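Appendix B, record 7
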Amino acid sequence: MHLLPKHFRALVIGSSGTIGSHFVKLLESNPSCLEVRGVHRHSTPAINYQHPETIEVCAKSLANDGPFQLIINTIGVLHSDQWMPEKKLDDLNASQLTDMLNINTIGPALTIRHFSKLLDPQHSVMATLSAKVGSIEDNRLGGWYSYRSSKAALNMIIKTAAIELARTKPNIALIALHPGTVNSRLSQPFRGQQIGRDPLQAVNEMFHVLENVSKEDSGSFLSYAGEKLPW
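Structure tokens (predicted):
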């Protein structure tokens, strides 16, 4: 049985980014979505993973707007103005590893801690964007040390939290969701415009996966096509 009800309220975290903003557009045009809220670094309330104290503050500020039946966290980083994914072991450095873990692991982990309290205990889904390159079993090319590690750690957070919540809130599903390559700022240095999918197409595909999630899927690592990915 699908967890997302016929009529639902949604929250998009990271709604100023390419994927997040297109999720908001998609949900605003969906007649089943009664309301969609979006939060980001410059929204009110704001959420900024460089300032982790904002995570709890943002969640508490939205408490009276809940419960939500769908929460989607789209925040993540692959590169910055200072660094790109490592090609070899000698490229590893503490600063890049720290930044990746702060944005891709610690921020989302605290988001699950505080925002899962806003989920409807009767039937709801919380999806956090992960990445297939975070799969340890699927790693065949190497490289991208800090990005792979941060997403692998995120996957463990999601799996572990899903096990805990299943004991007290069995009708909530926590999902790690791989969006694939999307034409966005994140993918542009890696031929995103050539090989990436249109953002609206990508969020339509991901939403199709989310609206078919059952409680048995909680703790799963799913692709945008609905495929279960190896940890």
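Remarks on this record: The radius of gyration is 17 Å. Strands lie at 8-13, 33-39, 70-73, 124-129, 172-178, 220-223.
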